[in-house]
Design brief:
mainly alpha
Length: about 100
């Protein structure tokens, strides 16, 4: 999830992996591995990544950017990203009654 959030924040800023790698003085392969969840990011680089992408470590680590009013919606969207179509249908069946409830 951490890598997905870094990738998403990077893409939203219009920054390429190459540009991010150059800013951190690391290889493009390293950034790619972080984004794919193949290697962990150390705290020093995480701090630099957050500064470059203008996002909080809270969002990158937990998916909660409390400065953003839609942080819970974004966290749910992040959770759904890796789900199969069958799992998404099941989740929709579970939450639909909650969404429709008018109490």
């Amino acid at each position: 999830m951490i890598g997905n959030r870094i990738r998403k924040a990077r893409e939203e800023k219009g920054i390429t992996q190459e540009t991010l790698a150059e800013s951190l003085d690391v290889s493009n392969a390293y950034i790619s591995k972080i984004e794919r969840g193949r290697t962990p990011v150390n705290l020093n680089n995480l701090d630099k990544i957050c500064a470059i992408l203008e996002t909080s470590a809270d969002y990158i680590l937990r998916g909660a950017n409390t400065s953003n009013e839609d942080y819970m919606r974004n966290e749910i969207i992040d959770m759904l990203e890796g789900c199969s179509p069958e799992k998404i249908k099941l989740i929709a069946q579970i939450i639909k009654p909650i969404v429709d409830y008018e109490g």
